[in-house]
Design brief:
The chain has about 210 residues and is an alpha+beta fold. It is built from 5 helices and 9 strands. It is about 30% helix and about 20% strand. α1 packs across α2.
Length: about 210
């Protein structure tokens, strides 16, 4: 599987990251609106480290969270894509779908449009039997996108995020699921299980992506 796969929607190009993406991404990660449901704003160094982890994920798996640009202008507006969480919970190992977009592009359906393309790739190309997505319980914007792309929520799946301390206002997370292609799932999930434990050994806990 090639990590250089680009995907296009009506309005978006989902592609591999470029060096020039780092500066606008750092601006996003220092925006209190974008980071409302994260523990803290990111410094430039922390933002660049996030890009480095994203690129390492692509190198290891051939997929990841794609840099996302507007097709008409080429403007970098954030990311949409797939990742393997590195923490352990009742639903791991798994593949998560996530997104983070500049606030100027909220409310136009762009997150939903990009996420649908990522779902098609995950099910059609990777053959996953299931995708998950999770976010802080209070994050209704992301939860609406999850619902729009056909994900379902069962309160029994909700969990305390292990990267956040007990009592933290964002620790309670909701989990959404979407069923995929069961016929292609077995080989994919065996690969996922092996890489999950490899990631646990190599990388620290990643930030939630949304």
């Amino acid at each position: 599987m090639s990590g250089d796969i680009n995907m296009e929607t009506d309005r978006l190009i989902l592609r591999r990251w470029r060096e020039e993406d780092r500066e606008p991404f750092a601006r996003m990660n220092s925006d209190p609106a974008v980071m409302e449901f994260f523990p803290a704003l990111l410094t430039r160094e922390e933002s660049d480290a996030t890009v480095d982890r994203i690129e390492a994920h692509f190198a290891a798996h051939g997929f990841g969270v794609w840099a996302t640009e507007l097709k008409g202008t080429g403007e970098f507006i954030g990311f949409v894509g797939l990742c393997i969480p590195t923490f352990q919970s009742h639903f791991t190992p798994c593949v998560e779908i996530g997104w983070r977009l500049a606030a100027a592009h909220w409310g136009s359906g762009i997150a939903t449009e990009g996420a649908r393309s990522a779902v098609e790739f995950a099910i059609g190309e990777l053959g996953l039997k299931e995708l998950v997505s999770f976010t802080a319980e209070q994050n209704m914007r992301s939860r609406r996108v999850m619902e729009k792309i056909g994900m379902t929520h069962d309160v029994a799946d909700d969990f305390e995020h292990p990267a956040l301390p007990e009592g933290h206002w964002l620790r309670r997370h909701v989990l959404y699921r979407k069923a995929g292609n069961r016929e292609q799932a077995l080989a994919s999930n065996l690969r996922l299980l092996a890489t999950h434990y490899w990631l646990l050994a190599v990388f620290p806990l990643l930030d939630p992506v949304k």
